[in-house]
């Protein structure tokens, strides 16, 4: 799991700026910037993002082995999984258009395929990825790659499980993605760097990365 989005030309170097990609109602319906969120709601603070608890939601923190840094947040909900990562982004331009192309190329190199479609967050990729588990030769798994460009941040989501194949389950996991709050902070960061994540304030060790109920 990378803590930066690499292999993409910087907008400033490529000579043009990509427009931001986000739902028209993002500022009210999410994913929200910290400045747009309701300060009194009982969010779980994970540093770069905040998660709103709900019945049946399980949280997993993905930790880098060597550094013990949290590099992604995994959410299990209603038969689906949602992995989210927040990245720093330029103030006036977006990252998602270029990042989609990078994802497509990476999956193609793995022997998989992607299809571009228009989803509730704008353009998204439906990917068919070769399974890597032993005893699953020739099998594939489906995943949806979604992205939203916000103010000085980009939020990437990967949806798998029922949310990738079932409309009712998709609506539930999409609502969960909408509820994420991104905390960009004021610290200068290069575009495409992961906004720092941390364990909840009540957690202090890597063992707490195991699934935790947020009900």
Radius of gyration: 17 Å
Share of residues in helices: 10-25%
What fold name goes in the CATH topology slot?
Answer: Protein Transport Mog1p, Chain A
Question: Which structural class matches the secondary elements?
Answer: alpha+beta
Oligomer: single chain
Instruction: Tell me the fraction of residues in β-strands, as a range.
Output: 25-35%
* Count of individual beta strands: 12
Distance, first to last CA: 27 Å
What is the name of the CATH class? Alpha Beta
Number of domains: 1
Shape verdict? globular
Mean pLDDT figure? 87
Outline of the structure:
With 215 residues, this protein is an alpha+beta fold. It contains four helices and twelve strands; from the N terminus they run ααββββββαββββαββ.
Structure characteristics:
215 residues, Protein Transport Mog1p, Chain A
What does this structure look like?
16% of the residues lie in helices and 33% in strands. It has 215 residues and is α+β, with helices and mostly antiparallel strands. It has a single domain (34-133, 141-200), classed as Protein Transport Mog1p, Chain A, CATH 3.40.1000. The strands form two sheets. It has an eight-stranded antiparallel β-sheet with strand order 7-8-9-10-6-5-4-12, with helices on both faces. Strands 1-11-3-2 form a four-stranded mixed β-sheet. The longest helix has 14 residues, at 96-109. It is globular. Mean pLDDT is 87; it is low at 4-15 and 202-210.
């Amino acid at each position: 799991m990378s803590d930066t989005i690499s292999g993409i030309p910087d907008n400033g170097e490529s000579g043009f700026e990509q427009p931001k990609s986000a739902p028209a109602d993002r500022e009210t319906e999410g994913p929200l910037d910290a400045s747009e969120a309701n300060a009194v709601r009982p969010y779980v603070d994970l540093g770069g993002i905040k998660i709103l608890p709900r019945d049946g939601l399980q949280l997993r923190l993905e930790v880098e082995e060597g550094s013990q840094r949290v590099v992604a947040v995994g959410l299990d909900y209603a038969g689906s999984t949602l992995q989210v990562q927040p990245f720093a982004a330029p103030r006036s331009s977006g990252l998602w258009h270029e990042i989609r192309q990078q994802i497509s190329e990476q999956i193609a190199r793995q022997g998989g395929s992607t299809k571009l479609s228009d989803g509730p967050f704008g353009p998204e990729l439906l990917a068919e990825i070769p399974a890597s588990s032993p005893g699953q030769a020739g099998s594939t798994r489906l995943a949806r790659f979604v992205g939203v460009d916000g103010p000085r941040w980009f939020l990437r989501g990967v949806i798998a499980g029922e949310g990738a194949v079932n409309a009712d389950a998709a609506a539930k996991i999409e609502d969960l993605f909408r509820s994420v709050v991104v905390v960009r902070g004021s610290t200068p960061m290069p575009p495409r760097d992961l906004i720092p994540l941390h364990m909840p304030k009540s957690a202090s060790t890597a063992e707490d990365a195991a699934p935790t109920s947020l009900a």
